[in-house]
Amino acid sequence: MDGSLGRGTPRRRKLDLANGRVDLSHGSGGRAMEQLIEELFVSAFANDALDRRDDNAVLDVPPGRLVVSTDSFVVSPLFFPGGDIGSLAVHGTVNDVAMGGAVPLYLTAGFIIEEGLPLSELKRVVDSMAAAARDAGVAIVTGDTKVVERGKGDGVFINTTGIGVRRDVVAPSADRARPGDVVILSGSIGDHGIAIMSTRESLDFEAPILSDSAALHGLVAAILDVAPGVRVLRDPTRGGLSATLNEIAGRSNVGMLVRERDIPVKPAVEAACELLGLDPLHVANEGKLVAIVDPADAGAVLAAMRAHPRGAEAAIIGTVTAEARGLVQLDTTFGGRRIVDWLAGEQLPRIC
Amino acid sequence: MDGSLGRGTPRRRKLDLANGRVDLSHGSGGRAMEQLIEELFVSAFANDALDRRDDNAVLDVPPGRLVVSTDSFVVSPLFFPGGDIGSLAVHGTVNDVAMGGAVPLYLTAGFIIEEGLPLSELKRVVDSMAAAARDAGVAIVTGDTKVVERGKGDGVFINTTGIGVRRDVVAPSADRARPGDVVILSGSIGDHGIAIMSTRESLDFEAPILSDSAALHGLVAAILDVAPGVRVLRDPTRGGLSATLNEIAGRSNVGMLVRERDIPVKPAVEAACELLGLDPLHVANEGKLVAIVDPADAGAVLAAMRAHPRGAEAAIIGTVTAEARGLVQLDTTFGGRRIVDWLAGEQLPRIC
Question: What residue segments make up the domains of chain B, in order of their start?
Fold first, then answer.
């Protein structure tokens, strides 16, 4: 206890954002943590709920059902072509809420910071989060900061939990695909995973491969406008398109038949996959979605997606079948047919 | 891609919960992750929202305002006298929601696991979380699992985000204390921090000091029953009672005058604090709260708290003053008066 410096005497110096580093005192619950929160987080995320500065946020939500999702982000490196852990932590959770058919409204943010992280890097991450949240129309309303000793973390891990509201008529879920439904993919696959992997491996391509990390709530709104009864919405992140289609096939107890030639893959991504021995179907995306719709809605949904910037390359890639339930089959470019399985082991650790 | 083993052929072996360890494949988004989620998390947390197994939960909430809080838990060691990181991750967030005057309803859970963690330890943590959530009447409705390489984490970190609902007449907040208000503490301070510290330092006391980690929503409900207009509710966790009182003094722009002799500290905790050179006012609690109430309500609130098992030792410890705004003053047992400041540096890293 130190009686010499009361709060009435605000003599403390500002955080040294250019040269300072996070130390254990920033997670202590004491004055240093208060300062980090004030000068770095609150100033970047400013909104009414956060400014109240209680350990909770009090929120108004419009009528409808609440849709909630949580994700922890451990991507390595923290900064990559096309994004960083901050923007990714917003996009990833906004998208999981949007895939529930909801309008994302609020995010919480929990930071686990490794002692020694330069404050300048933390500030870049926080500013990027704030910008991504503004762009997506969500407010970061409450948060938490922990600091772990050097060697017990890796720079910074971020958890975000998202809250949104959906209309009662909307109820997409992985168990609602039915035989005859049409499978639509919003654009090219593999961009995010390959962007991360090529940064890690210091691969140089003629054209750099950028992550597709992006918020998809606007694209979802465009789909719901024309097809509020959309059966399934999913973003194929970890595990790639193959995991997403397998999960839907299993949960809905249906088969899936997709055509390789209709699945967009950028030439540079394809080349990198060959070099790295990866299958684009297993590589993560952070700005793409799969919509499964009644065949009567397919034309309108495809047109609505193509009219949206995040769905310009949208394509019908296959159909839901009554045969081969629980399996995903691929008609290959070479005229064969094979089963597309889940990723069995580990392919790309820490891509999100 | 491996066409030899479709989902139609469920030949996989169950997780080896006795001798297995978490590896990177458990965070891959592929089959191993699916298995970990099914056999460990879903089976322990089972509820309708989680069983849907989408990347989000769809929730019904009763009328009222939404109160949301998030916390990441990085406590070391994972298991300590009186609790573990699993029960703590439930209690901590349930309490932050309850301090907003809300009934906690739902939790999300995000796990960041270090490669190599024994599955048996993870199962103990998850079972403890499930039990704590059942006891607190909250459902764990959606989650996320990430795995980081050995040396990039520390066993397991857990983020929980809590959602509750409060009645419109209830609005406790740290900026609502007024001169003349009464400060009530629900019980003895320092138990949690000293339980962690003595485990880490392998201190042996005649009577082991147990963490006070507990859910306080029931105690809050008892307070709200008699005083729905309670001004401030706060649980003094990191930074201890001193941080909580200083924050309220600053946010409400009032002074605080508290009496050392009325603040309960267990003799064993006091002895440990002397040995370790700690001030109990700075040591974390995980099952105590501070209520600041109108003097007209103080008697009823104190009686209601004492009638509840979590508030049996509740005591009036001081008053809110118009003097010395922004400062917390302590009348010491020895007849002096001194300022109680925030913790300045780091005292007890990773106690929550």
Answer: 24-166, 182-339
| Residues A242/B28, Cβ–Cβ less than 8 Å | no
Given an 8 Å threshold on Cβ–Cβ distance, is A66 in contact with B59?
yes
Q: Do B70 and A24 touch (CB under 8 A)?
A: no
Both structure tokens of A317: 């890639």
Q: Give the three-class secondary structure for B309.
A: helix
Q: Tell me: the pLDDT tens digits for B30-43?
A: 889 989 999 999 99
User: Which residue shows structure tokens 């010395």?
Assistant: B324
Helix ranges (DSSP H) in chain A: 31-36, 43-45, 48-51, 85-98, 119-136, 191-200, 217-226, 240-252, 267-276, 295-306
Burial class (CB in 10 A: 0-12, 13-18, 19+), B51: exposed
Question: Chain B: nearest CA to A9, how far in angstroms?
Answer: 10
Nearest Cα of chain A lies from the Cα of B265 at a distance, in angstroms, of 16
Mean pLDDT of A288-303: 98
Task: Please write the tens of the pLDDT for every residue from B68-106.
Answer: 999 999 999 999 999 999 999 999 999 999 999 999 999
In this predicted complex, what is the ipTM? 0.95
What is A182-339's CATH number? 3.90.650.10
Type of residue at A48: D
Lowest mean pLDDT segment, chosen from A11-25, A258-272, B157-171: A11-25
CATH superfamily of A24-166: PurM-like, N-terminal domain (3.30.1330.10)
pLDDT greater than 80 at residue A89 = yes
The pLDDT score that the predictor gives to residue A6 is 38
